[in-house]
């Protein structure tokens, strides 16, 4: 009893902590609704299983023959079983009931959505039912039938076992003798089971429109003309056989139901399997393109509707490959906003220049956002300065990790299209305390992606602050603070302290004198985890990003409503669709989907952890259903401030799923779709290394697409032809972009937001794809020679993201090139920019210069780095003796170009000598390379413009 009480208290402590957490956030109805639903369904499942099983055993036992003649073996079984009979007769139903209750309670979401279902207003083309029938009703009906079938099957098995044990069923040689009571009970139970199977087979007809076939998801020709009618016939046969079992219960003859059962089995083979195979093999396969066309058209139309791409604008784009002077004049704003700071590469630069202390950190992958600065939209690379408790080393005491180091500090933002003269990011918001162009805002980050598992904050008025706020400048001191918000459950009594001491298995929470009645405990602090707990019905985007909104740092999280039961819509593995070189996505609630909507925008306040859910797609029937279940948790979009709207963006995971679908479903003609003559795929990331199969991620850029009047914050990706076996042509076939800017008006979404535009390139246009362009960059002798110079002194040259921009009537490729010296405190510096247009390439110090070289000396537009900002002193000085990067002329002279070409050849000779072991030739080549480098340095020093 003591052990049971201890276990019960631990369970209670966890549940009570959940109540406190949800109550503090204002989402207690979410928890109570789930708990009540689970409890009710557990009781229903328990009774629905235990009661029929118990009744079946009781009926079998009470109707047993009193004077049955048993063989010696059954006598011994009875002797063993009889002392346990009462326990078994009640224990078996109870155990089965518990398992059934747990199973049923786990279907609480399915049950609640069925009870609160909302019509889609769209009918399926096969049966004429509303799509909501397949999404909400059919799965529920099939689960009910499946559960009932399990109950009846277990009941009939236990009835047979009980009757056999007590002599109601006897086997005498080849003869089976069944008593009347046993016959009636078994026949009725078997008849009920077959009736349930008839209903199940009948429902299976409707499931054909959501099942994945060899060609499409949904009912194709064979399904419509053979499988669906066959299942209807089989359902009727099963119902007839069930009636025969009921007749047997009355007349006592087993011949008819046994013959009927055999007929059902044979029919299921002939009608359910053989006949569809014959139709497919001998009727469909010879004329598949013609016969399947109507059903393929259904799949095309409904797939595009389910993934929200039915209204995509397809724009034929005859991309020019000739780089003529002044070609970019009409795209001046787009070229001025091309992002050069790669958020996957400059995290080390943020760390070295803005980390300041070992107990701070920045994420490996930074985020992209935009801000209105001086009446201009400025694309930025942003990150919060979060805690890194591992940096404390041996100072990681309980007091320090949970009471002192409680929060990160500040948001750091760098201009995406600018660089300093030495290649560092140009910071728009930086420093401790935080200063910059983003105005005044609360800089403390108590809720971040790397926050400690829990922190205890707050103190009585007048107490000395305990929490580290930020390090003081110069003298190594610290500024202390006390949390003033409402961010977690209060530890205002002994019982609550005991509950959390048990939850986190730390007696210090209970014993520490710093933990007072004014203390709060902050936990579950990751923004994605926080939103997931209060909105369990959502699948969340894999990337939460921080923004400064209305004087606060908030995390913005996109939430999706999904289903895999949309008729005729092609199913996609979501985890595969969103995986790319930026990283594999976490495991989702369910993997295969064929309907997706970005239905919710959520925000998490970085200071007090407040979660706000906004209904973004109020027309989504799945969201409307959940709003009926949780009516107080969602706010309308009209409550969103204009500043929040200006940072909301089209989510990348949704875009990745849509581009995966459009690879094939950009084709709207059934015949062309069947032959896959124009199937596309996303190119592999050319910067991920040889042999990599990771896809190139989509990128956010401010640009003007054909068909747009002005540049807009957009998300884009490109397409190349789908590979045929080992062959793959890396030429562009499509360019997909979506308007990601939601505007800046309170509660009003911009008209263009979410507009998808697909540029389709002609088949005879061999515009190079990202892979081809990267190969050109890597293989060009002039570029290789300059890169080898940058690599002197063991420096590492890093290729940034390869951007594709539709400007100048064609497609411009831009790739920043970073140089990173050796040493633990080194970080990448942007030194060069590679550009390509058609077959022409250029490699210069700035994008503006590279564009001018590429377009015949005058591009007609200025890039954002046409005037590089002066560099700032790095926080960590460069290592003594670290190599410096020599400057090269923007436009190589003939003499410089000749030296570069010679250097390239000397490097090849040097490597060949090393391979052959000819060390004399190796030394000669090495000496000549040193002479070339010396000459280049003299020339570049003489011709370069002095810099600050």
From TrEMBL:
TM regions (residue ranges): 41-61, 87-108, 144-166, 186-203, 232-251, 258-278
Disordered as annotated region, ranges: 858-892
GO cellular component: extracellular region; plasma membrane
Coarse class of the protein's main subcellular location: membrane
Pfam families the record matches: UPF0182
Start-end of Low complexity biased regions: 871-892
Keyword Signal attributed: no
InterPro entries according to UniProt: UPF0182
Keywords, sorted A to Z: Cell membrane, Membrane, Transmembrane, Transmembrane helix
Membrane topology according to the record: Multi-pass membrane protein
Lineage top rank: taxon: Bacteria
Location relative to the cell: Cell membrane
HAMAP family xrefs: UPF0182
Family from the record: Belongs to the UPF0182 family.
Protein name, per record: UPF0182 protein ESP51_13780
